[in-house]
Amino acid sequence: MDQIVYYDRYLDQTCAEKVYGDKALRWTYGSLAGRLSLNLLVKRALFSRWYGWRMDRPVTREKISAFIQDYELDASEFVCSVDDFANFNEFFYRRLKPEARPIDPDPTSVVFPADGRHLCVPDLSRCDGLFVKGEMFDLETLLDDKSLADRYAGGSLLLSRLCPVDYHRFHFPAAGVPGPTRLINGPLYSVNPIALCQNIHILATNKRCVTELDSPEFGKVLLLEIGATCVGSICQTYQEGAAVSKGDEKGYFRFGGSSTITIFEAGRIRFDTDLIENSQQHRELYAQIGDHMGTSV
Known about the structure:
By secondary structure, the protein is α+β, with helices and mostly antiparallel strands. The strands form 3 sheets. A 9-stranded mixed β-sheet has the order 2-1-14-4-5-12-9-8-7. It is globular, with a radius of gyration of 18 Å. The termini are far apart. This is Phosphatidylserine decarboxylase.
């Protein structure tokens, strides 16, 4: 894969992704020595915990200003000023001002749960692949629960990929009452398309969390957070059993690229046209948390 191309909803054009750690990523997944290191070290939780610890060191503050400049981030959106971050990890899981990510007010709408690049599957029983035609992960493996997989076999799915440059808090896409979070342990492979085009099953086997949201508008919605290489941890900030509004924060990822997956029961959602059209071309759509993603059926 020469370039990672996605469609930017706001610019209304196709863009090439500027990948953080691009050379290291391509070496890891594109060379024999890299693949050996991947299996011996990089995929293991110990490596990601070490990297997360490293990003907690005060000396990493020095990276923040250059990172903001290199990736053209808007510091005026941050709740904290740049000088207030104690380390790079604090900057990485920064909070944003509410006005930076307004929540779509339509009572029939569902919103994107995170800033990132998104792909949808309107009907999982007819899916022909995500990043590569014909390549799709197994739902039962993803959920680690056959009865749950059977229940959602004809449902709809949204995959949201967060790059290291993105805002790394994830939110509830609809109002409802969330249940407990179930942790499914696994390795920590990269979720970058360079890796996923080689092995889409990474998404179904990486460390992941599953939460059920009981939504009046959308039924029982499954919310998953997928860990990845250099993700220090998946942190849940919501309160189990307490009603949430659409767009409320659910949690955040510590350092590293990562993904969320949202799964709806059959016949509960109609995805937006631009999301469907780009997904049919196996091309991600860039959109931000709180923006309109679809409507109830």
